[in-house]
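Dear support,

Our group has been running a series of protein-ligand predictions, and this particular one with NAP is the one our PI (initials K.S.) wants archived with full inputs and outputs. We had some confusion internally about which version of the output was final, so please treat the block below as the authoritative record. The input we submitted was:
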Amino acid sequence: MASLKKAVQFSRTGKPSDVVEIIELETPEIRSGTVLIDIEAAAINPSHLLTLSGGYGVQPDLPAIPGAEGIGKIIEVGDGVTNVNVGDRIMIPPYSGTWRQQVVVDADKIEVTFPSEGNPMQMAMIMANPPTAWLLLKTVVNLKPGDWLIQNAANSAVGQYIMQLSHIYNFKTVNVVRREGLDNLISQSKGDICVIDGPDLGERVKEKTNGAKIKLAIDAVAGDSTQYLADSIADNARIANYGLLSGEPCKLSPEDIIFRNISLNGVWLTMWLRGRNSTKDQRASVYNELRNYIIEGKMHAQIEATYTLENIKDAVEHAMRQRNGKIIILPNG
Ligand SMILES: NC(=O)c1ccc[n+]([C@@H]2O[C@H](COP(=O)([O-])OP(=O)(O)OC[C@H]3O[C@@H](n4cnc5c(N)ncnc54)[C@H](OP(=O)(O)O)[C@@H]3O)[C@@H](O)[C@H]2O)c1
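Confirmed final output from the archive:
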């Protein structure tokens, strides 16, 4: 018999904590080829805040249930499902709307499974940020072991994964943050150097790396910060912008573009998920690699707090503030 389950919904865009509300939905019915999932954990990412405020690259038709990623356990399978079973813990397919207690998804979209034991919170964050870190490290320039890269917002979850993956691949990292007190986090995440952002970044990076030729800059901030990264990298190097945290346009001087051949490109996971420069098999292989690192504890992101669905407004407010880790929603408590 159908029962009522809680979900978060937004019917308009605006200040993220204002526009989210709790609704009750009947337990979704499963059809042939689909599965019913109890959602265990789902993160609040900056992209969710952008979506709620109307500024993301793809906006859903409203009303909509937020939540691009999450982890859950299958509690019922429809006719004809052969790839998964009741009890399996799975990565919920991208953009299923995970800020709710239960969801029905097509079984053939399930690509990643996890062991059913263990804390689900690190697993809940696999869909978006780990492959973004992988894309930034593996598809922009051809880095070889021993090569240097620099990134800003290095204490973000993506930043932590970039440091951990760089350690695995033997790349060296300069990690730029915007405030003091993050040296421990950077060294725990296997980062090599931690520096505070600012107009003299280039000089300080040169000193700290003994003039290393940095081939790749990874930019989540934009604005002046893009230029500070450009000041820190070698001629002919690339800047990969993947975030708009400052809300400002990327600044890059024409002297750097013309006389030093510095180039700036965007990287967006959504394009990769949709098959631009990737096949289903390649994505499966990347997710399999990242899943194993997460299970082995080689990739993890700091978590600051957990919330239940009932406290979604507080959770979203918290995610909008300065914090030391992710905010995780536990839809079933
Ligand atoms: N392009 C893609 O496909 C893609 C995929 C995933 C994520 N992203 C982007 O990656 C970025 C990081 O995401 P995340 O989930 O890893 O973030 P997160 O863990 O939630 O951390 C947020 C980070 O943003 C920093 N920050 C916030 N406002 C800032 C500002 N005005 N100037 C400079 N830094 C600021 C914070 O620094 P403090 O700690 O100092 O506040 C913190 O380092 C976001 O921009 C997100 O949208 C892009």
